[in-house]
C-alpha cells in the first residue's frame, strides 16, 4: 500500500519501501483513496482552527455517512459491509488528518452501532442503524465511569426493574459524542449482571455535559453523563448483551481501528519532518544532509513501516475471523506507543517551530495521549499480553 498510490502527484509525501499494495484489493484501495480525499478536502483546511476553538463540526457527520464510513464494517441496515482492511485504511486516513475524526467514526460505528448490530433486536436494528449509517443520527457508548475506566466490572451505574420499567441511575465519564448523540448505549449493573440499554438522549433524567478543560482531542466531544432515575421500557434492553463480554467485544472493534489510525497520525508527522529537513538550510546545507537528522528519520520510518505491517497482519487475521484479544492488544500497545515516539522525534526535528500550529505535530502529539489512554491504557494491554504469555492473571 504505497502512499504514493493514493496521492496527487503534486503532494510531497513519504514513499514506502515495503510494497504492501500487493495484499490489497482494488476495493480496499478505493476506500483508502476516498477517505484520504475527504480528509484533505473537508477536515484539514479547518482542523487547526477547530482545535484551537474546541469546535466540533457537526455538519461533517452526515458527510461521513454519505461517504459510507459510519458502521462501514457492518452488513445490512444501510451499512457498507466493507472488509476489515478497508475499515482500517479509512481509520488510517482520517487520523492522518486528526485523531478526533477517526474517534468519531469509531465511537459511532465500532462502539454504538456495533453494540446494536451484535446484540440488538431486529426492531432495534431497524430503528437505529440506517439513520446512524447515514449520519442522520448520532450514537454514543457509555461504559467508563468517573471512578476509573480500567475496571468496568466495578461500575456503579445500576438498573433496577420496577413495575415493568427499567430505572437507570449513575454517572459515566469521557463519553464521546454524548452531548450531540440521539441514542446512548449505556452499560449498567442489574440483578442479572451487566446489561446494555438503548437510551434516547431526550429521555428525562439523561444529561451530558461536555468536558471543557481538555488539552487533547479539542476538535471532538467527550462528556460527563448523568443518569438520574432514567425510566425505560422493556424494549430498551439489548437482548443479546449479558455480562462484560458484550461491551468488551465492542471495545475490541474500536481498538482494531486504533491500530491503523495511530499510524495515520505517525505518517502525518513523518511527512512533515521529511519535508522540513529538505527545505530548511542550517550550517550552509539542508538540514536533511546532516547525519543525525537522517538517523532520526530512519528510526521514525522503520517504526512506521513496522506498525503498518502489524496493522495489515492484524487486519488479515480479522478478515479470517481468527483475531484474538491478545493480538489486538499487541497492535494497540505497539502502534500507539510508536506513533507517540515518531511525533516526538518530528517535534524535535522541527525545533521551535514544532510547537506552533503552523505544523500539525503538537496537535497529533496531544491527541495521541488520549488515544494511548482510551480503549485500554498501555498497562492494561501489557497485562493482557503478559497473561497470555504466562497463563497467570495479574489483574
Give a structural overview.
It is a single chain. With 395 residues, the protein is an alpha+beta fold. It has three domains: 131 residues, Orthogonal Bundle (Butyryl-Coa Dehydrogenase, subunit A, domain 1); 105 residues, Butyryl-CoA Dehydrogenase, subunit A, domain 2; 145 residues, Butyryl-CoA Dehydrogenase, subunit A, domain 3, CATH 1.20.140. Helices cover 50% and strands 17% of the residues. The strands form four sheets. The protein has a four-stranded mixed sheet with strand order 3-6-7-10. A four-stranded antiparallel sheet has the order 4-5-9-8, covered by helices on one side. Strands 1-2 form a two-stranded antiparallel ribbon. The longest helix has 35 residues. The two termini are 39 Å apart. The N terminus is likely disordered. Keywords: FAD, Flavoprotein, Oxidoreductase, Transit peptide. It catalyses: glutaryl-CoA + oxidized [electron-transfer flavoprotein] + 2 H(+) = (2E)-butenoyl-CoA + reduced [electron-transfer flavoprotein] + CO2. It is an enzyme of class 1 (oxidoreductase).
Sheet-strand content, in percent, reads 15-25%
Unreliably modeled segments: 1-12
The CATH homology group name of the largest domain: Butyryl-CoA Dehydrogenase, subunit A, domain 3
- Tell me, what is the CATH class of the largest domain? Mainly Alpha
- Helix content range of the residues, please? 40-55%
Largest sheet: 4 strands, mixed
Domain Acyl-CoA dehydrogenase/oxidase N-terminal: 25-136
EC number: 1.3.8.6
Protein name: glutaryl-CoA dehydrogenase (ETF)
Pfam family, one: Acyl-CoA_dh_1
